[in-house]
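User: My collaborator sent over this chain with a note saying "see what the structure looks like." That's all I know about it. Can you take a look?
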Amino acid sequence: MSLPSSYARVRRVNSFHELISTRFENGVNALCWERTLPGDFGEIVNLLGTDIGITTLEENQLLQLPISAAGKIAVGILLEDQRLLREHGLDPVLDYVNGYLPNDDPSPLRTDVCSFHVDTATAEADTWLCTYHGASSEGLPNEDAQRHVDIPGTRAALLKHCGGEDNAEFLEYLSDHSFDLHYAPAPHARPYSFGPSNLWRIAVDYPDCLVPPCIHRAPDPIPGQPRLLLIS
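Assistant: Without extra context I'll predict from the sequence alone. Here is the result:
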């Protein structure tokens, strides 16, 4: 993972223990355990079909795949990562992402996972991510982003779409539709890649969180290049 020295919000760690025990503080809102993993994750992906959309993979399904020794090593890693997270009270899922179904919402603002956004929770929580195959997620320094709803032209378009006035009711409308969670990169912004195989823990927006939430996004889908993604 190559990051400019100015990206002080990202911290590298050297183990799973360090990843789960390190506190978010002093502005750091993203932790990365850099890894180079053995095994053939591409072989798994090639056996999962071509249906468009997101398929959550279960353990039995993975264990029944007719794969080589290299593929079995990859399956073992997928299951072990989930085991580690579950042992610490988390609820990870493994998704096969082969594009996204069309969104018929005529909203003037994109709010899917491929738009830069932050995650929210009502109590202390983190988001965990690992891309084993395919394009990786991206992060964006908070200093290099602006909420879409704070951009006058976008706010005016949302207000027109809502058909009301810029008041408390409008703010509730923005929140109800998650418009206030999405960000536009500044013209000079340089998003950073989460990279393949790396396990990330990123900060979420919840009451009394000590750091700003990590702004991130999924990559836009590339036809014929599905992703294998762990998320919790």
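A starting point for your reply to your collaborator: The chain has a mean pLDDT of 93.
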